[in-house]
Design a protein that fits this description.
Layout lengths: L1 E6 L12 H8 L9 E2 L3 E6 L3 E6 L5 E2 L5 H19 L2 H4 L10 H13 L2 H4 L8 H21 L4 E4 L8 E4 L2 E4 L6 E4 L2 H8 L7 H11 L6 H20 L2
Parallel strand pairs: 2-8
Antiparallel strand pairs: 1-4, 3-4, 5-7, 6-9, 7-8
Length: 243
């Protein structure tokens, strides 16, 4: 076991994120997980005013670049099933008030885009990104209002929002997710964007996208199955617009 300490700090647009894991553990959010998808067990939680402390179980297993595409597919599938179940448990979620707002993704885009984005570099020979990725980035600027409007039509579910390889552990056929400080309400498919893009070689984004999104499913009810089919179609359409 280990103590995880997080001091007070303010993430732009999400001032309570520094203490969100503490609040989620105390809210009973963990009761919504399944045998095959969970988070680290928390044995004690302290709120010291300017910092929170969590006494948590160590997590063993495969993580980061050691994860195979098959294991990432399972992680995507398990998260999709989890979100699908929660779509049918709205009453259970009403008592959980510490989840972040749905505008997280758009706020992050606005905050970081102007600081890191340079057309001059993207269109230069120095930039070695594949041409379709360059086009996706430049087209996003042109169509940003349409893209965010279309995303707003997708179903809203609780998202992890930092769903990338370093926060995913695969052990004994089960998936454990760590670092829930940015968790909140978001649109179906948000977490898949993190998983596919972060830390995956540009030339592998296409194959990873096709395999991982196929496994990202909502399959806990008839309604959820139909929602899955509609959602995947919209995600493919959004992806196709920018490739």
């Amino acid at each position: 076991m280990k103590w995880k300490t997080q001091k007070r700090w303010e993430r732009p647009g999400d001032p309570d994120s520094w203490r969100r894991e503490y609040d989620l553990y105390r809210s009973g959010f963990g009761e919504l997980f399944s045998e095959t998808l969970s988070w680290p067990k928390c044995y004690a939680a302290k709120d010291n005013g300017e910092e929170i402390q969590l006494r948590m179980a160590d997590v063993d297993g495969v993580s980061g670049r050691q994860l195979s595409i098959d294991q990432l597919e399972q992680a995507a599938m398990e998260l999709g099933r989890f979100q699908g179940r929660l779509m049918t448990k709205s009453d259970d979620l009403q008592r959980i008030r510490c989840l972040g707002a749905t505008d997280f993704m758009q706020r992050e885009f606005v905050q970081w885009h102007s600081q890191t984005h340079s057309y001059e570099y993207l269109v230069s020979d120095t930039c070695r990104l594949p041409s379709n990725i360059k086009r996706m980035l430049t087209d996003l600027d042109v169509h940003r209002d349409t893209v965010f409007r279309d995303l707003g039509k997708l179903p809203v579910v609780p998202c992890h929002r930092d769903f990338w390889i370093e926060n995913i552990f695969w052990t004994d056929g089960k998936v454990i997710l760590i670092d829930w400080d940015t968790a909140g309400w978001g649109y179906i498919g948000e977490d898949m964007a993190s998983l596919v893009v972060d830390e995956i070689r540009p030339d592998q984004i296409g194959p990873y996208y096709r395999r991982i999104v196929q496994e990202y499913m909502l399959a806990e009810s008839v309604d959820a199955k139909q929602e899955k089919e509609d959602t995947l179609q919209r995600i493919y359409e959004l992806h196709g617009r920018m490739t």
